[in-house]
Every structure is written in C-alpha cells, then in structure tokens.
C-alpha cells in the first residue's frame, strides 16, 4: 500500500475540509449518524467476523468486550456524532487583533490542523468518534485501527464515506489504512510531508512505540500513574471515599489512582479504616513497611520500587507513608506520569502548595482523580487526554485539533 | 559527558524556576545584564579564540561576522535581557475557571514547560537571549551551541551562572553542554525523561536533523520559502515596493521572499518594471518561460522545478506567471514551507480568498513578508518562528515557552 497516495489524498481533502461551513459540517455529522443506523446490520455482520476471530485466538474476555458491537453500541456511536454536531465550531475565531504603529492590522485566526492521523487499538467506536471530532474541527483524518477490529472499521468507514460523498463532499476527508502491519504503522509515523499531527490512542506500549518512532509531531495521551495524598489534616471519611472512588469506580482507565500516599501524622487514624474499605472492594494492597506495621494481619504485600512506577489498571494499589506534603510532592515528581493527582486536606497552605508545585495535567484538592475527562470538564467530547506539555495538556476537546495562523491586513507597508 | 546528570539537575532546577516570583526573575535578568557588562573583557577574550579558530579554518566572512562579539554586541545582549525583564510575566494566569454542576471549580493555569533544550548554531547572542526568555517564563534551560562558538558560550554561561548563584538561586537553571559532538547532540534529542521541549535554531540542515532524530517533542522553526503574489488588480508600484522589500531588505533571513508569482493579467504591466527594479538591486531572476517572453534581454535564467522549492537566502528570486489567484494558492500549497505569504491586490474577494485558503503561519494582504517577527508583531522578544502547527505557529514569544495545567478545587466530590 502506498502511503504517499493516502497522504496526497488527505492533504487535498484537508483543503476542502478547512473551508466547510459549520452548517455543512453539522449536516455531514447528522448524515453519518443516520447512515450508521441504516447500515447497522452490515456493520454488525462485519463485527461478528472480528469477534469470532478474537475468540478463536483466545483473546481475553475484556478485550473481546471492547471489540464487540451491538445495537446499543452502534446507537451510542450515532448519538456521539449528533452530540459533536451540537458543539460550538472552534474554527474561524480571531483573537488578539490589533493595529500596529505602522498601520498593519494583525490577528490570530483559529484554523484546522490540516491532516490528523490517529493510531488506535481494539475499540471500533473510536473510529466514529475520532472522525466526528476531526470533521467538526475542519480536518482530514487518516485512521489506523488495530488488526483485531479491521472488518468492523472497514464497514464503519465505508458507511461514512458513502454518506459524505452523497452530501457532495470529497470522501477522502476520512481514510482508513486497511493494512494493519507494523511496517505500515512505522511508515505512517514518518509521513511528515502529509501529516500535521499524530495521536496514538491505546495502551502504554502503543503510545511509547509512537513517541519513540514518529518523526511527525505527536500528542502523547493517556498513561496515568495517578496519586491520592492524604494530608495531616485530612477529613478521614472524605479521604476514604475519594481513594475508594479513585481506585475502584473503574480501575481500568487512565485517571484511576494507582498509589495512595499518606502523611505519617494521619496514617494511624486513616490507614486501618482505608485499608479495610479497600480490601472489602477486593483491592490488593502493596504497602511500605510502615503501612504493614500500622495494618497488621490485613494482607498487605510488601511494595517494590517498581510498584510505585506502575500503572496497574487493576484492583491493585501501592501505598506509602510519607513525612508530609513536601515528601508527597517529591514522590509524585519522581514517580508520576503527570496525569492526575489529588490532595485530601483541610489545610489551606498545604492545598495551595500542592496545587502550585505538583506538575501534572490535572491537580485536585479534595476530589477524586476520576474527573479528568473531557465530558466531566464540560468539553462535550474528547479526543484523548494529553500527558505531554506541548500543544495540549489534559483532556483534549475540539480546540486541541486546531492551530492558529496570523492574518495581516496592510495597505502597502514595507519594512524599514 | 553524562547527559542524565545534566537532565536530572535541570529537572530539579526547573521546580525552583517555576516558583520564582516575577520580581525575583526580573532581579536575576537585571543582574545578568550587569554581569555581562562587568565581564565584558573576559567574554571578548574568549570570543577572540573562537573567531581566530574560525578564520584559520577558512570559515566564510558572513559566518565569522555572526560569531564575532564586540563591545556594542555585548551591550545589545545586556539590553535584550533588560527588555525581557520589562515584558509581562506569562506565568500564573488562570483562564476558563468555571464551576461544574457537581460543584467542582475547574480552571486552566498557565505554568512553565519545565525543561527547555535549545540546539543552535554560531551566534553567541542566542545564548543570552534564549536563557533570558526561558528564565522569564519560569523554565530551566539546557543550551547546546555550536562548536564554533564554544569558548564564547562557556564565558557567557559562566557569567550568568555566577550572577544567578550570587542572587541565591540554583545556577543549574542554565546549563551549557560543553561537548559539541554530534553524538552528544543525538543523545540530547532522546532525553525524554528530562526534557519537555526541544527547539532547534539554525539552518535547514540542523532543523531537519532535529526533526528526524528527536524523540523529545520539537518545535520546528524558521525555514521560510516565502511567496509574494501579484494579483490581476494589484497596484503596480505597491507590488514593486513590496517585492523589492521582501527580497532585498535582508535576503539572508527566513521571512524574505523567495518566489514571485504574477497573475497573467498583471504580468505585462508589472513584470518589466519589477524585473528592472530587481536587477538594479542585483537580484538574479530565475523565471518561467512566460517571464522570459515578457522580459526579453533582461538576463532571466530559466527556472527549474527545484528553484520553486528553494529557500535561496540570497539575491536570487524565482518568478512564475500564474493563471490567477487560484493557481497562486495551488502553487503555494505545493511549494511553500508554510512560513509567510503575501498577496498584492485591490480585489476584496481575492484578498479574502487568499487569507482564508493559504495555510501558512502568516498570510498578508498588501504588505511585505518581512514583518513576520516577534518584535514587529509587538511580542517584545522572540524565541524563534514556528513553521509547525502543533503548540505554536509563527513568531513565538514568552507564551510559547509555557503550558497549562488544570487546577480543581473540590469539597469531597467523587465520580458516580
């Protein structure tokens, strides 16, 4: 497969996507939602092939579940597109427009990125979601899903292309790379001539592979080794509620907590009750020596250095007793992936210190890390959660898929 | 040299730099400016070694000039630092702070990037400029200058470190990599664990090497294949003034024009006068066949396909007659590096079309491309001109060296 042809088509289509009016983009999104429902049986039939293949290959149940579509899930994909249609269009806003002393009028106009590429894993709903967000932000998109979902993705993208073409727009605004080989993924990561940004969505392995190998600018997403720190003066029940929520409400996602830090002043009153509550939720506790001392006979497993670096994504929690807020901040600076961290405290000074000094995408006082999410933050939709500092940080809405250009109105100015 | 030690020190120093008040940062900038003047003789003595080495090696005169310092140039570096002290501090601003339905108060706070690395070539003034901008924006910086300027850079950074330490701040906020080998540069580009962003400043070769080899997020800067397009209805004299300015006012910089496009309707009235004026400024013209036909006996050299891709940075201009504004936009989409482009026109419709459809960092109507510059745009200082779309585009001021983090004030919220 010649990726240069894909790239060339995407670049040409991006110029069309960039000039679509908000009305036309919303018309397309609505048509795509309709098409998903109209072609539901065809998509489900394709999905059955993927699911049967996965089951035969002995894929674990949670992955098969991610891969599986049904009527409700297709309806949810369609509903997602209708929601994107309702979001405000980020394109066209002009900010900081000023007249310079020489009479030049200079402003910054929000424009699409151009060509966005997305490499993702098993979930076929990402296909609809990613194209919907790229379209609303005026971009052409190149999608590369996983081999597990290839038949589902071909059916979904085919449905969209037909709907787009019927609405009189170049269907190259969405292209699926059907060759799911690693070589093609590697080539995609070097396609600087055509791709403006590459966003990986998936596990840590996929993301690191993209970060290490891509020469195209990347937005690193989603790896979260998140911390909850219980300060000296924490409200004990609030602390328990927050760590139970952050660890167990949905352990497999990036904003779930992986390490609990407890100030030594709070440890004796907090830890036995917290560990009891966590154990009741079947959470395995990997604790430091002090944790084990304070909670004898509660099944504490000794924590290794590696445990503090690990995103368990499971019912496992590392626990460490620290000297206080400064040591908690030090620990987070060393071990965190910079996603989400929370302090539970009644101390104004320590709350402000934690907010100021912790260098992560989302820093909380007295709330669960589970809120780091585009929908929770009111963005209406989310293309991913950036854990890098360049361009976008934290949950990314439509604006993260845009850039700006300077527009300058003159009347003959030349530089002296 | 162990870059991990450099990285570790920078990361620790970044946490200090991030919490410096605006007052303290300005105190440091003023102290650094004083120190440059106080240590002027020492810096000049170090510079003489670099310059003599360059002359012996047969380095061309323009490069030796870039490398050379004198009293005025050191004073200009000091003045630059005083100017940076006067700029508003971008750090700490909180935007979009809102209360969610569940009572969480969420805002985006502007914070430093952390550790900025800058790889640059011969000019030692970049050393002062880059550190000054990184300090004002609360970052630690790792500098890697070229081997040509190593003695000058060691003297300048040594002066700064002393001034910073005397003011009671960790001097690791600025570190110079004294080993100028390619291997060390390559290792720096892979130091993701410690570096948040890498900015190359220099020629196209350096920039491409960084883009191709860096796994650290990069801001691509400064390559400019800029176009001036003379539309059907252009004011002829304005067109001549603008192309003369854009090509010849300073041909060696990235915002100088490299290609002149002329609508065929304007060609006969515009080209002979424009080519005459350009030839009088000793500009070599590489024209298409139509250009040669319209301007016989004026020394037009036939343009090759490559000429339209080339950033000459010299008294050379590619010229092409095009069918009109659409063909001009097509040409720019194909050949431009996305830096700066200008249309000269009296047509409102064509002006708006050009502004909307040309996808470059700066798009001008009736003005010279030479204005794409942080100082000209009123930013007060510039770390470079981004030609990528991610994070920053066009002239980058202090804000380009910052990121944001979400800060969230709760009172016990957990996710349902």
Unreliable stretches covering 5 or more consecutive residues of chain A: none
CATH class of the largest domain in chain A: Alpha Beta
Amino-to-carboxy terminus distance of chain A: 52 Å
**Gross morphology of chain A:** globular
The CATH superfamily of the largest domain in chain A turns out to be Aldehyde Dehydrogenase, Chain A, domain 1
What is the name of the CATH topology of the largest domain in chain A? Aldehyde Dehydrogenase, Chain A, domain 1
Strand % of chain A is: 15-25%
- Could you give the count of β-strands of chain A? 16
Number of discrete helical segments of chain A:
15
Describe the structure.
Chain A has 416 residues and is an alpha/beta fold. The first copy, chain A, folds into two domains: 3-220 and 388-409, Aldehyde Dehydrogenase, Chain A, domain 1; 226-371, Aldehyde Dehydrogenase, Chain A, domain 2, CATH 3.40.309.10. Helix content of chain A is 44%, strand content 21%. Chain A has helices spanning 3-19, 22-38, 40-56, 61-67, 71-86, 125-136, 150-166, 182-188, 204-213, 236-248, 264-280, 289-294, 305-309, 325-335, 348-357, and strands spanning 94-99, 105-112, 115-120, 140-144, 174-176, 197-201, 226-230, 257-263, 284-287, 301-302, 316-322, 340-344, 362-367, 384-386, 394-396, 402-413. In chain A, the strands form four sheets. In chain A, strands 10-9-11-8-7-12-13 form a seven-stranded parallel beta sheet. In chain A, strands 5-4-3-6 form a four-stranded parallel beta sheet. In chain A, strands 1-2-16 form a three-stranded antiparallel beta sheet, with no helix packed on it. In chain A, helix 5 (71-86) runs parallel beside helix 6. The radius of gyration of chain A is 24 Å and the shape is globular. Strand 13 of chain A pairs parallel with strand 16 (402-413) of chain B, so a sheet runs across the interface.
